[in-house]
Design brief:
- By secondary structure, this protein is α/β, with parallel strands linked by helices.
- Helices cover 36% and strands 16% of the residues.
- The strands form two sheets. Strands 2-5-6-1-7-9-8 form a seven-stranded mixed beta sheet, sandwiched between helices. A two-stranded antiparallel sheet has the order 3-4.
- A hairpin with a 5-residue loop joins strand 3 and strand 4.
- The longest helix has 18 residues.
- The protein is globular and about 55 Å long.
């Protein structure tokens, strides 16, 4: 299952953009939907008004939805389940003999195909995270999910002119050995991705987390370049090719547009040049692993626990 949430975990809409691209390429249907009344503060995540294909006005409520192969029918809203139960002990109408069991998921690197990929896409809940997590894990266990890949994107002091960095980490020793990745050393505030990952590991479902670093000085706009970087990393984990469509051209236009803005603002151009020099130093062959770790840790901590920089009407790169 591939997971992404709008909000704190989704700088530049990169993570949700990547999951939507996967959804568009696979024959997946909605198999479960979170009851938004239980988990969302509508003053914080307001419903939106839109027109449907027939020209009728409809309300779109913030929610989270799980998509799966057409033959997987868990049905209904998750809020009706026994959210206080142990995820491993929940029951559902899914045919677990066909989907497999979570206990078989202990070996990382199990080949994936469009017929056994699930997606969780939605808005980060405002409250009830423990109950929300229990309900999601109930569905994951019932569906025989063998592993979960979490996608996130953070605002960081990185230049838009260099390749988008995507860090991979896991709390699962077997996964780290198989994929040759590290355990995250981050300590501080976390989002719903970390809460779900912790619960999944406790339920015996191995996890991997991918984080893309998005330039903080362009935080108000979607970042197709970061979405593209996440897609490229994700493909190697789920063994599914995701057609790029117009994403490559959009990423190039995104970078060109920022170059144009920087060309009209000497202070912004100077700031970007400083970021380029710092990035090139980290990427140089002489850079030690410790230096790279320290630089990345600095990016995380400077964001004050991940809080986006306040705009206050001024440009975010200005002191």
């Amino acid at each position: 299952m591939v997971v992404a949430f709008e909000g704190w975990n989704d700088a530049g809409e990169a993570a949700t953009g990547a999951v939507r691209m996967v959804k568009d390429q696979l024959d997946l249907v909605s198999i479960a939907e979170i009851d938004s009344e239980d988990y969302f503060d509508y003053q914080f995540n307001r419903p939106t008004s839109e027109f449907d294909d027939d020209g009728q006005r409809i309300l779109i409520w913030p929610t989270a939805e799980i998509f799966g192969p057409a033959n997987e029918q868990l049905g209904g809203a998750l809020a009706g389940s026994d959210s206080g139960s142990d995820p491993a002990g929940s029951s559902s109408s899914v045919d677990s003999g066909e989907a497999g069991t979570a206990g078989e998921a202990g070996t990382p690197g199990v080949p994936a195909s469009p017929s056994n990929i699930f997606l969780l896409l939605g808005t980060e809940p405002s409250r009830g995270w423990k109950t929300f997590t229990s309900e999601v894990l109930n569905v994951a266990v019932d569906a025989g999910i063998s592993g979960i890949v979490f996608l996130g994107a953070m605002l960081a002091d990185v230049p838009h002119t260099r390749p988008i960095s995507v860090s991979s980490s896991s709390e699962n020793q077997a996964v780290r050995s198989e994929l040759e990745i590290e355990r995250s050393t981050y300590e501080g505030p976390v989002g719903i991705l970390s809460v779900l990952a912790d619960a999944a590991e406790q339920a015996g479902i191995p996890t991997v987390t991918l984080w893309a670093a998005v330039p903080h000085y362009v935080h108000n706009a979607p970042s197709p370049k970061a979405t593209l970087a996440l897609i490229e990393k994700l493909e190697g984990l789920i063994s599914v090719d995701v057609p790029r469509g117009d994403l490559v051209e959009e990423a190039e236009a995104w970078e060109t547009g920022i170059n144009t803005l920087a060309g009209e603002d000497d202070e912004m151009a100077s700031y970007i040049q400083q970021l380029e020099q710092a990035r090139d130093t980290v990427d140089s062959p002489e850079a030690s692993g410790e230096a790279i770790a320290q630089e990345f840790e600095r990016y995380l901590r400077k964001r004050d626990g991940g809080t986006p920089p306040a705009t206050g009407g001024s440009e975010p790169w200005r002191p």
